[in-house]
């Protein structure tokens, strides 16, 4: 199975200078363009479970070789 990495930069709502990176992995549907099209729904689902955090940017990448998932 090929995976794609949806990389989110998220910040704490109470302290916007406190940010970190989160990775969401899901099955690739062929291209990064497909990931970008599917990302808003995945981000919305993730955000529902993390109400104290705000997604400030995101991108899609193919996981690098040897990267642990």
- Rg over CA atoms: 13 Å
Structural class from helices and strands?
Answer: alpha+beta
How would you spell out the order of helices and strands? Answer: EEHE
The residue fraction in helices comes out at 10-25%
Describe the structure.
- There is one protein chain.
- The chain has 69 residues and is an alpha+beta fold.
- It has one helix spanning 32-48, and strands at 3-12, 15-27, 53-61.
- It has a three-stranded antiparallel beta sheet with strand order 2-1-3.
- The relative contact order is 0.33.
Annotation keywords:
69 residues, 3 strands, three-stranded antiparallel sheet, alpha+beta
Question: What layout of secondary structure does this protein have?
Answer:
Blueprint: E1 3-12, E2 15-27, H1 32-48, E3 53-61
Antiparallel strand pairs: 1-2, 1-3
Brief description of this entry?
By secondary structure, this protein is of the alpha+beta class. It is 25% helix and 46% strand. β1 and β2 form a beta hairpin.
